[in-house]
Design a protein that fits this description.
Strand order of the largest sheet: 1-2-5-8-9-10-11-14
CATH class: Alpha Beta
Largest sheet: 8 strands, parallel, barrel
Helix content: 25-40%
Oligomer: single chain
Strand content: 5-15%
CATH architecture: Alpha-Beta Barrel
Structural class: alpha/beta
Number of strands: 15
Order of helices and strands: HHHEHEEEHHHHEHEEEHEHEHEEEHEEH
Radius of gyration: 21 Å
Shape: globular
CATH superfamily: Aldolase class I
Number of domains: 1
Length: about 450
C-alpha cells in the first residue's frame, strides 16, 4: 500500500465507530485480499468530473439532487428496482431543471449503500437479544442468530451487487432510457388521480413543445437530450471495505476510492480524530460530511480544515440533517462561520434523518410536512445570509410504498401497514418525491443565482 494511503492497521487502531465485529480475523483478511485485486467500480476521471460540477453547485451555478434507498439490499438488485429509483431521480431532476432553470447534478445514493449505522448494538424481541441488523453488507435482516452474525464474505457481495447496479445504471443513462422524449414513460404508472402527476404531465407537455420548436428551427441538442451523467455515492462506513477499494490513480499518482464517485461521513462517525476522517482526508474524490443539530461551528470548521485543507472547489459538501424544529437555529451560525473563512463548500440538506419518529401504530416513520419544513428552513437560512443552497439529499424509492406520512397522497399512520417495506429508515414514495421536487424548484426559482452556466454542460 502506498504511503499516500494510511495503513489499515493504523486506521483500526483509531477504533472506528459503527464497525462490524467479525469472529474470524483470518476470513476478514482473505476477503480484503480478494477485494484489493478486483477492478475499480468507478474511475478517477469520473470523480474529477463530479468534483468540477460540485464546484459549480457551490458557486451558485447548479444544484445537486442526491437520492436513493436508505440501505440497499441484495434482493433489490434487480432491473425493475434499479430502474424505478433511477426513473424517480430523472423525473425529479427534470422538474427542478425546467421549473427552476438551473442545471441539476444527479447523484444516486446507490451502488454501495449497503451498510447503516445503528443506535443500538443489540436488538431485543420477546426477551431475546441478537446483534442489530446493520445492512446487508454486514448481516441479514432475519431475526436468527445465524442471519445476524457479522459475515465478512458479504463484502464481496457488496462489490458484486454494486458492479451490477452501476452496469445497469450506465446502460439506462446512456442507452436511451434517459432521453428527454421518454419523460412521459417515466411517469407512466404513477397514480393518475394524484395532483402531482397531473402537474408533472403538464410540465412534460411544455418540454415536448420546447423540444419540437428546437427541432423545427434546426437546433439539435444531441447527446445532451438523449443521455445524462449519473454518479454513485454512499456512506463510507465500513473502514475495511473502503480501504480495500482505495487505489493509486495511474494518471496522477493520487489516491482515489474506486467504490463510488462521492463518499460521505455520517453524523455518528465524524469524529475529528477518528478513522473515517483520517481515511477520507487522503482521498482525491469529492467528499461530504453530515452534521446534526448538536454540531458547533468550531467543530465544523475543524472538519473542513481536515477534509479540505486547500480550499479546493468542489472538494467538500456539508450536508445538514438538523430536523425541522432545529434547522433555523442550528444551521445559520455554521454557515456564517464557514463562509467567513473564504472556503466555498457546497451546502446540501438532508431533511429526512432529523425528522424520524415512531407512529402510534408502532412504525418508524417521517412526516412529509416535517421534511418540507426542514427544506424551507434550509432555504430560508441561505436566503437570509445570501449564500447558495447547493443541494438536497433524499431517501426515496421507485415504489408506491407507505413509509412516510402526509404529502398530496395523504398517507396516514393507519396506512403505514399497507406497504411498509423498508428494512431500515422510511423512504419517500414516488408521488412524495415528485411533490418534493416541485417544492425545491419553487424555492430555487425565488433565489438570485449566478447565470454564467451552460445548461447543456450538465
Amino acid at each position: 500500500m502506498s504511503d499516500l494511503i494510511p495503513a489499515l492497521a493504523d486506521l483500526r487502531a483509531l477504533q472506528p465507530a459503527q464497525q462490524p465485529q467479525y469472529e474470524d480475523a483470518q476470513a476478514v483478511e482473505t476477503v480484503l485480499a480478494q477485494l484489493r485485486r478486483l477492478p475499480p467500480l468507478v474511475f478517477a476521471g469520473e470523480c474529477d468530473d463530479l468534483k468540477s460540477r460540485i464546484a459549480a453547485a457551490a458557486a451558485g451555478r447548479a444544484f445537486i439532487l442526491q437520492g436513493g434507498d436508505c440501505a440497499e439490499t441484495f434482493d433489490a438488485v434487480t432491473a425493475s428496482s434499479i430502474r424505478g429509483r433511477l426513473r424517480v431521480l430523472l423525473s425529479m431532476s427534470v422538474v427542478m431543471t425546467y421549473a427552476a432553470e438551473v442545471p441539476v447534478i444527479k447523484i444516486g445514493r446507490m451502488a454501495g449503500q449497503f451498510a447503516k449505522p445503528r443506535s443500538q448494538d443489540i436488538e431485543v424481541r420477546h426477551q431475546v437479544g441478537l446483534p442489530a441488523y446493520r445492512g446487508d453488507a454486514i448481516n441479514g435482516f432475519e431475526f436468527t442468530a445465524e442471519a445476524r452474525r457479522h459475515d465478512p464474505a458479504r463484502l464481496l457481495r457488496v462489490y458484486n451487487a454494486s458492479a451490477a447496479t452501476l452496469n445497469l445504471v450506465r446502460a439506462f443513462t446512456k442507452g436511451g432510457f434517459a432521453d428527454l422524449r421518454s419523460m412521459h414513460s417515466w411517469n407512466a404508472d404513477f397514480v393518475r388521480e394524484a395532483h402531482v402527476s397531473a402537474r408533472y404531465e403538464q410540465l412534460t407537455r411544455e418540454i415536448d413543445r420546447a423540444l419540437a420548436f428546437m427541432v423545427a428551427i434546426g437546433v439539435d441538442g444531441g447527446e445532451a437530450f438523449r443521455t445524462v451523467d449519473f454518479y454513485a455515492s454512499h456512506e463510507a462506513l465500513i473502514i475495511d471495505y473502503e480501504h480495500a477499494l482505495t487505489r493509486i490513480d495511474s494518471r496522477t499518482g493520487a489516491p482515489y476510492n474506486v467504490g463510488g464517485h462521492l463518499l460521505w461521513i455520517g453524523e455518528r462517525t465524524r469524529q475529528l480524530d477518528g478513522a473515517h476522517v483520517e481515511l477520507l482526508r487522503h482521498l482525491r474524490n469529492p467528499v461530504a460530511v453530515k452534521i446534526g443539530p448538536t454540531a458547533r461551528p468550531d467543530q465544523v470548521l475543524a472538519l473542513a480544515d481536515a477534509l479540505d485543507p486547500d480550499h479546493e472547489p468542489g472538494r467538500l459538501t456539508i450536508i445538514s440533517r438538523m430536523g425541522a424544529a432545529q434547522i433555523g437555529r442550528a444551521l445559520k451560525p455554521i454557515v456564517t462561520a464557514v463562509e467567513a473563512t473564504g472556503r466555498k463548500v457546497c451546502w446540501s440538506c438532508d431533511p429526512m434523518h432529523g425528522n424520524t419518529f415512531e407512529s402510534a401504530t408502532g412504525y418508524k416513520t417521517r412526516s412529509f410536512e416535517d421534511v418540507t419544513a426542514e427544506l424551507d428552513g434550509f432555504f430560508d437560512v441561505h436566503a437570509e445570509l445570501g449564500t447558495w443552497p447547493g443541494g438536497v439529499h433524499i431517501e426515496l424509492t421507485g415504489d408506491d410504498v407507505t413509509e412516510c406520512v402526509g404529502g398530496v397522497v395523504d398517507v396516514s399512520e393507519a396506512d403505514l401497514a399497507h406497504r411498509y417495506e423498508t428494512l431500515c429508515d422510511p423512504r419517500l414514495n414516488r408521488q412524495q418525491s415528485l411533490e418534493l421536487a416541485f417544492r425545491v424548484a419553487e424555492r430555487l426559482g425565488q433565489l438570485d443565482r449566478a447565470t454564467d452556466f451552460t445548461p447543456l454542460d450538465f
